[in-house]
Amino acid sequence: MGQLLLVRHGQASFGADDYDQLSNLGLRQSIRLGQYWLQAASEHEGAEALKFEAVYMGSLKRHRQTWEGIAQGAQLQNQAEVWPELNEYDSHALIETIHPAPLAKPDTPEMYKHHFRLLRTALQKWMAGETQPKGMTSYAEFAAGIQSVLTHIREKHQGRVLVVSSGGPISTAVGQVLQAPAETSIELNLRIRNTALTEFVFSPSRHMLLSYNNLPHLDHTDHRSWVTFA
């Protein structure tokens, strides 16, 4: 059986002009994950447990920065292969399909809730084929892209594989493996935490879910204040 670890990027810059940029905390989260893996390998599992047969990531800056932080913390030398299919959907384009007027920057709890209520509704309409956000593919094409990554991993690998991506692609992959309704991925995505781990095992014919949205590297009391969602 192969092992596939999917990591959501570290905290990005929600509410800033450029969301696609890790915050200082997001970089620390990423480095901490790598350090956790390095420590676990040295204390319990042996150096072989840190070796990845392949590393894949989306083409967004926050994916690359997260991988660089993990590699720094774990002292990994892998070269990550970029797959645009692992990129997140455009939340702004989605929201514009149901709320064309500009939104104020979400700087209060109520504004955050309003943003994500709009996003949930926009995702539902996109998945149902009722809207076509500007610059985006259809949901069917988005989901097919995620499936193509999973198929590639099953066909090409037998060992340990790492994917660094975003909440949308990861939750979509989980939904596909569980054969859940497409809308299930919305609820999964809105609860996934930064640098959270999702684990599959796989054979040449299928993937199987072992765990979702885990943060073992932030469990210690010294790091629990580092847990974020955006």
Which fold name is given in CATH as the topology of the largest domain? Rossmann fold
Structural class: alpha/beta
Q: What CATH architecture of the largest domain do you see?
A: 3-Layer(aba) Sandwich
Mind telling me the C-alpha Rg? 17 Å
Tell me the span between the first and last alpha carbons.
Answer: 33 Å
Q: What count of helical segments does DSSP give?
A: 7
**Strand order in the largest sheet:** 3-2-4-1-5-6
Tally of structural domains: 2
Basic shape:
globular
Order of helices and strands: EHEHEHHHEHHEE
- Please describe the biggest sheet, giving its number of strands, its sense, and whether it closes into a barrel: 6 strands, mixed
State the helicity in percent bands.
40-55%
> How much strand?
5-15%
- For this structure, what is the CATH homologous superfamily of the largest domain? Phosphoglycerate mutase-like
* Mean pLDDT over the full residue set: 94
Beta-strand segment tally: 6
CATH C-level name of the largest domain: Alpha Beta
List unreliable stretches of 5+ residues: none
